[in-house]
Every structure is written in structure tokens, then in C-alpha cells.
Design a protein that fits this description.
Elements: H1 2-23, E1 28-33, H2 40-57, E2 60-64, H3 72-75, E3 80-84, H4 93-104, E4 109-113, H5 129-134, E5 140-142, E6 148-154, E7 168-174, E8 178-179, E9 188-199, E10 210-214, E11 222-225, H6 237-250
Parallel strand pairs: 1-2, 1-3, 3-4, 4-11
Antiparallel strand pairs: 5-8, 6-7, 6-9, 9-10, 10-11
């Protein structure tokens, strides 16, 4: 009898703990990721890293690799939208409207990586004017196809996303997109790459070259992080710290690791 009672109490305790954990999920993140092409290795490593962080930090992650399901009602379930190397073209019309409303009304936060700034005419699609303005009015022009290491120089060390990140840090093997102009006049620049530190050196430069920025004209907390090509980025403590900080900041959470 005592053994049966003990088992019953233990089951009740575990059930309550599980229910409490589910009820206590801090926020829900939606991740729109590329599921093909030469960014697939980055996407897969990012998913592994995100899943571990979500488990450790008690938030949930839903992954989608196209925009078919995105509507205003669908986005309403999520406090954070992560555009993980997914380009700003080829979106379904309903998704375009829902995303613009989500950002303009501040219904959740947004983090964009790498391919999110691939603005221009690609794969038969025209440029998305709203997204171009969101990214600071830029248009993609070129990239370093052979890759180069580069030193990122922090400009706003007090921004919450830069907590515990040194004033400069190295990013290995990146493509370093260039644009028709710097977005600086239209966005808040958080960090830039020093093009003189490219290794190997490259003639593909744009001068003032922001690589992390936020558009404070929109209600949603938002941050664009250019670096996002190689899965090896997830062995770079400064990159993973930036990624983690950005998640909690954009989701409106105060818990940024000290």
C-alpha cells in the first residue's frame, strides 16, 4: 500500500512539474530558414544550436522553410521571428502583408541573418520595396565568393545585443556582401566590418560597411546580423553570444547572460 501511495505521489509530482514547465514557457520563436543551397550546412547547425538553447532557457522554437503558412493569425502566436538566411523575395502575398504588419505594429521581435539582405531582382522576383526600406534602403551589389576573414568593429557597445562582446572580434570565412550604399543614414549601426582587415585581401569593398544594425523607425525590436554563411560560426563564442543576446532582446526578455 505504501509503495503504491509513493508511486502515485511521485507521478503527481512529475506531472505537475511537467505542466508547470509547459505553462512557464517564456516565449515562442518562429524560425524561417533556408533548407537548400549552399547555406544548408549553416541552417542545420543553427537549428542544433537553437534547439539546445531553447531547451536550456525554456522557450519554444517552430521551424518553417517556406512562407505558405504565414498569416497575421499565425504570426500572432509568436513573440519572435527569426529570418535565418531566408531571402526577402518569393514570399506569398499573405505572408508579405502579415510580416509588414507584425513589424510595423511591434507585435513581436525580429532577427535577420545574412541572406535577409539579398535585395534586388533574383530568381525572377522583383525587389520588395518595403523590405528594402526596412533594411535601410539598400540593394545588394556584390560579395566575396572566395570568402575572407574580417575584423568586426563594435560601434555601440552599450546595445543589449553586444553585452559581453569585445570592442572588436574576428569572423572567419565570410562572404561580406556589398550594397549600393551604406544603410547608415537610415538605421542605427551597431557594428561594421573593417575592410582593411580582410584576409585574404579583396578588392570587393564598399567603404563604410555596417554589418550589424537596427532600424529604430519600426515598432518591433529588430536587429540584422550579416554574418551567417558558415556553420563554423557556431564555434565562435562572440558570434553565439551575439545570437543569444539578440534572441532575448528581440523577444523582450531581460535575461541576457551576464
Amino acid at each position: 500500500m505504501r509503495r503504491t501511495l509513493f508511486i502515485f505521489i511521485a507521478v503527481c509530482f512529475l506531472s505537475a512539474a511537467s505542466f508547470g514547465h509547459q505553462q512557464g514557457t517564456r516565449f515562442k520563436a518562429l524560425v524561417l530558414f533556408e533548407n537548400g543551397g549552399h547555406h544548408i550546412a549553416y541552417s542545420m547547425e543553427a537549428k542544433r544550436w537553437l534547439n539546445q538553447l531553447a531547451a536550456d532557457s525554456n522557450f519554444s522554437v517552430t521551424y518553417i522553410n517556406n512562407t505558405d503558412s504565414i498569416t497575421e493569425n499565425y504570426l500572432a502566436k509568436y513573440q519572435l521571428f527569426i529570418q535565418l538566411d531566408y531571402p526577402p523575395y518569393g514570399w506569398k502575398a499573405a505572408a508579405v502583408g502579415a510580416f509588414e504588419n507584425y513589424i510595423e505594429q511591434g507585435k513581436g521581435g525580429w532577427i535577420g541573418f545574412h541572406h535577409a539582405s539579398l535585395l534586388g531582382e533574383f530568381d525572377g522576383y522583383s525587389i520588395w520595396p518595403w523590405f528594402r526600406d526596412f533594411m535601410g534602403g539598400i540593394r545588394f551589389t556584390n560579395y566575396i565568393p572566395g570568402f575572407a576573414d574580417g575584423i568586426v568593429q563594435v560601434e555601440d557597445s552599450l546595445h543589449p545585443c553586444m553585452k559581453n562582446i569585445p570592442g572588436q572580434f574576428t569572423i572567419d570565412k565570410e562572404e561580406w556582401y556589398t550594397y549600393d550604399k551604406s544603410p547608415r543614414e537610415n538605421v542605427h549601426v551597431i557594428a561594421r566590418v573593417n575592410e582593411l582587415t580582410y584576409n585574404p585581401a579583396s578588392a570587393i569593398k564598399m567603404g563604410d560597411h555596417p554589418v550589424i544594425w537596427s532600424n529604430t523607425k519600426y515598432a518591433a525590436r529588430n536587429i540584422y546580423i550579416f554574418m551567417g554563411h558558415s556553420p563554423e560560426l557556431f564555434t565562435n563564442i562572440n558570434y553565439t553570444t551575439l545570437f543569444r543576446n539578440s534572441i532575448f532582446w528581440a523577444a523582450g526578455q531581460a535575461d541576457i547572460k551576464k
